[in-house]
Write a structure and sequence with these properties.
Elements: H1 8-51, E1 54-58, E2 70-71, H2 74-81, E3 86-101, E4 104-113, H3 120-124, E5 126-129, E6 143-147, H4 148-153, E7 161-167, E8 173-184, H5 189-192, E9 195-199, H6 200-206, E10 211-218, E11 226-234, E12 239-242, E13 254-256, E14 262-270, E15 277-284, E16 298-303, E17 311-312, E18 314-319, H7 325-335, E19 340-344, H8 345-348, H9 350-388, H10 390-398, H11 403-439, H12 446-449, H13 460-477, H14 479-482, H15 490-496
Parallel strand pairs: 4-9, 6-8
Antiparallel strand pairs: 1-18, 1-19, 2-17, 3-4, 3-7, 3-18, 5-8, 7-8, 10-11, 11-13, 12-14, 14-15, 15-16
Length: 497
């Protein structure tokens, strides 16, 4: 060993300082890398939880917080699911609204969740209550989920009713009452201050995306005739009423002489091509075959499926891995018809993701500084060791050893010192990270940091890369001081000793 004898007394403290410096540097590199990566993943997962990796929407001008309606085409959804890397596809829509309670008003963005919505993220962020669910028949219920911020601001809670005003493009408002069933908290101010969740069916209905046909009848049979008319709701308001089984036009009233079992159907359409809706009036004389007009009969109305169910605000697409985002966005765009577009989460939230990417610069600076400090410490230690071992170097050269093997001896010893420092640095750093991960003993103010505790995340490849990178860079940098041994000659070393 090189540290034997009295000559090692001066180098021992220097070697310990160098070892400690390498260990501390590795701890700081591991901790800084884990914190930044953990923070990036935590914020990224929260943003993705609100809107998935990719959103497919109609190509249209409009407010970013209001979905333009698009046909819910099954073949489009299947084409998206067929793209490699896609794990889930769900329908959604967003619409501006106003929440009202006895305590005041709050402007919100209402997000409608379809029956295929993945609630796993919001379930993990739930503070009270439950996520939205349907009744035993599968029908949507007038339930709503609020953030903790909105619930506290309006002084409401689980089991209480709130009034929600849907704001349409014509700036008119439609008020509906909803029951609060869940309160979530993500600590992301931009989202917690805005978003509430309800069923997609209510956004479809109250946005007037589809048409609703209604048929009316006066069964008093004044003058032996029954008056029949129709009404339309939704769409663009410019309706066309078609009576396929009658020679009628317009909404009516029209008059018919009911003599036998019969039916009257109306088809309501509009000028912007909204999917039509139908309603049918059924007249039943209960097997009375006398054909006397307006004798005793009953009527019933059969309504068609509301055509708003043919529309959605878009599709949210989840991927198996965030790293697939760029390829997934490109492949989905290629699979879509020309009137639809795919937008990745980084494009929808450029400010947040640009900020997260800037955090990498902090890590690079810390790693650079720690490696430079390690190089300085090891250079000092190696030079002191070489000066102490001049006599040994001279003796080795006197016995015929070339410069290369002599340099190798000191680089090997430097690698041993660095390796010992890296070992203890990894032990201390990983232990500290594990303690934070499992206990969260370092807390943060979520108002300023968007998380309640310091998040940490690091993988094995990162640890290996940091260790190998530090070892290789330090050894390459130590070649220069190690070359000093080539200037030591046997005569000079004996004279020096």
């Amino acid at each position: 060993m090189l540290h034997q004898g009295e000559s090692a007394r001066m180098s021992r403290p220097i070697v310990r300082i160098a070892t400690t410096g390498v260990a501390v540097g590795m701890v700081l590199m591991l901790v800084s890398m884990a914190i930044v990566r953990g923070f990036q993943r935590e914020i990224r997962d929260k943003v993705i939880g609100f809107g998935s990796h990719i959103q497919v929407t109609q190509v249209a001008e409009g407010r970013t917080q209001e979905s333009a309606r698009m046909l819910a085409e099954p073949e489009v959804a299947e084409a998206i699911r067929a793209v490699p890397g896609v794990s889930h596809v769900q329908s959604f829509a967003v619409k501006p609204g106003i929440l009202e309670t006895a305590s005041g008003l709050q402007g919100v963005v209402v997000k409608g969740a379809g029956p295929d919505f993945d609630w796993s993220y919001l379930q993990s962020a739930l503070e009270e209550g439950s996520v939205l669910s349907r009744d035993s028949s599968g029908m949507p219920q007038k339930h709503i989920m609020l953030s903790r911020y909105i619930a506290d601001r309006l002084h409401t809670g689980i089991g209480e009713k709130v009034s929600l005003y849907f704001i349409n493009s014509e700036s008119d408002a439609r008020q509906q009452n909803f029951l609060v069933t869940g309160i979530y908290r993500t600590d992301l101010e931009d989202f917690d201050h805005q978003y509430v969740f309800t069923e997609l069916a209510f956004i479809q209905k109250y946005s007037g995306w589809g048409l609703d046909a209604q048929i009316l009848a006066d069964t008093s049979c004044t003058g032996g005739l029954m008056a029949i008319g129709a009404l339309g709701f939704g769409g663009d308001g410019d309706y066309t009423f078609t009576w396929p089984e009658q020679d009628w036009t317009g909404e009516g009233p029209h008059y018919a002489e009911p003599c036998t079992d019969t039916s009257f159907m109306v088809v309501v359409s509009d000028q912007k091509g909204t999917t039509p809706d139908t309603a049918t009036l059924v007249v039943d004389f209960r097997d009375d075959l006398s054909r006397e007009p307006c004798r005793s009969f009953t009527t019933s109305i059969v309504e068609g499926v509301p055509s708003e169910q043919s529309y959605t605000g878009g599709y949210e697409v989840s991927l198996n891995d965030y790293d697939l985002l760029a390829d997934g966005e490109r492949l989905i765009t290629e699979a879509l018809p020309f009137y639809l577009t795919a937008t990745g989460v980084t494009s929808r939230n450029p400010d947040i993701f640009a900020w997260l990417e800037m955090l990498d610069l902090n890590v690079y600076i810390i790693i650079l500084l720690m490696i430079v400090i390690s190089i300085i410490n090891m250079t000092s230690a190696l030079l002191i060791i070489i000066l102490e071992r001049q006599r040994m170097i001279g003796s080795l050269k006197a016995f015929g050893m070339a410069n290369g093997p002599v340099i190798g001896i000191f680089l090997y010893h430097a690698a041993f010192i660095i390796g010992r420092g890296l070992f203890w640095g990894n032990v201390a750093g990983l232990a500290l990270l594990a303690l934070q991960h499992y206990t969260g003993f370092v807390q943060l103010d979520p108002v300023n940091y968007y998380v309640s505790k310091v998040p940490v995340w690091i993988d094995g490849w990162t640890v290996v890369a940091l260790n190998l990178g530090t070892l290789i860079i330090c050894l390459v940098a130590l070649l220069l001081p190690a070359l000093y041994t080539t200037r030591i000659t046997p005569i000079r070393s004996i004279r020096f000793s």
